[in-house]
């Protein structure tokens, strides 16, 4: 298992939080803020290291934006065919974009593809303004929903995770992101967006071919989501999920850092997430096997036999005659 190949890193992650602030260490010079793997069906923890250590989620923040849109669809406040008109606020966004223009109109479905595949920051703002009238109002709603989900160590400041320098930054933990992902996996339609590897975003006059940033879709069997994130300030993070028959796990890796920069951070992030999902699925299979074995070992309970009933004697002529003259 590749998990053993990064044992040095996992050893450093198991250090007390007080020491981790200044002495996080690995032989490759890489560090990770925290990680966790949970059962998607129940939220039960299958593996974790420093899952409550704070970090910055970068574009993983877009998962909360997506959840609020999907919840509005479920509440019949809009549909996937509803149209969103782009405002000036959306086009002022930096980072990954699909280069929206003021006045353009797209369906919610088109925008969700761009949000999940291209990680388009301008799309996140367009959806935020459409749903709540302004970005600050939408961010306030994000934080209310986070509180409702028990994400007690999470504070959002953007709908897209794009922050610079000293911030303020979106802040969360691996455990809080796992709570969010468990709820998101209750929306089967989400996985249609997150599992799509390529999509043509049909901008007027200039279609864009989008490619999913989640490389585990190609390399990990059963992987069908969810979202990657990287910025200079936040480093590399991922929330991902995979299914094996009826079993599904969610893995979160938060804040991978490397002296080598973005590419080594992203490779470490993907490797750790794959190892977590492998370990999580293996544990779920083991639990299922143990459950089946216990059921097989239960003693067979035979229901008590009912006492045999004597066959009813058929009445003859003299019985009938006796009944006739009985008083």
Give an overview of the whole structure.
This protein is of the alpha+beta class and 327 residues long. The protein has one domain: Beta-lactamase (3-Layer(aba) Sandwich). 41% of the residues lie in helices and 17% in strands. It is built from 12 helices and 9 strands. Strands 2-1-9-8-7 form a 5-stranded antiparallel β-sheet, with helices on both faces. The protein has a two-stranded antiparallel sheet with strand order 3-4. The termini are far apart. Mean pLDDT is 87; it is low at 1-5 and 7-27.
Task: Give a short summary of the structure.
The chain is α+β, with helices and mostly antiparallel strands and 327 residues long. The chain has helices spanning 7-13, 17-23, 62-74, 88-91, 108-118, 121-132, 135-148, 174-184, 188-194, 216-219, 262-297, 317-324, and strands at 34-39, 45-49, 83-85, 105-107, 198-201, 208-211, 223-231, 235-244, 247-256.
